[in-house]
Specification:
The chain has nine helices and no strands. By secondary structure, the chain is mainly alpha-helical.
Length: 163
């Protein structure tokens, strides 16, 4: 029998990021610290199991580790990633570096998570997940989506301030 506070069985209707965020909030402070540090320790593996990715290919484990760190550091909400960046006063220069990042993507995303946290602006990290897990045309579409969200929010904000 599963109880409301049971953290062993994964939710069924949430995406993996929402599942992880909900699970992370119920972890002990020590376990949360382990995940924020990006350690491949027991709390990481328990979280991976919780979201149904325990059997992920070994080449995907690093990406899950980074994604968990991002959510743990920056917080999760349903605010689109690009919109959250704009609302956190993320500069256009940083946005450009993020959108053009390749090998340094994980490091740039970690810095981005810290900036969002310092601005108290959680985000929906699904776009970051796609950037971490995909490349080529799919990743390019995600980059465009992030830029559209960022600049769309900016222009909407400017239009509202002109009224």
């Amino acid at each position: 029998m599963t109880t409301e506070n049971d953290t062993t069985s994964p939710p069924t209707r949430q995406n993996p990021i929402e599942q992880f965020s909900t699970f992370y909030e119920k972890m002990s402070n020590g376990d949360q610290a382990e995940v924020r540090r990006g350690r491949l320790s027991e709390p990481f593996w328990r979280a991976l199991h919780h979201i149904g990715k325990a059997e992920a290919p070994s080449d995907r484990i690093q990406q899950w580790r980074v994604l968990f760190q991002l959510v743990a550091i920056g917080g999760y909400s349903r605010v689109d990633f690009g919109k959250a960046l704009y609302q956190a006063n993320y500069s256009e220069a940083r946005l450009t570096r993020l959108l053009e990042a390749d090998e340094q993507l994980a490091d740039i995303l970690r810095r981005t998570a810290r900036q969002l946290a310092s601005a108290d602006q959680p985000a929906n990290w699904d776009a970051a997940r796609k950037l971490l897990f995909y490349n080529g045309d799919h990743a390019e579409r995600v980059r465009i989506e992030i830029a559209q969200q960022y600049f769309g929010t900016r222009f909407q904000d400017n239009n509202n301030s002109d009224e």
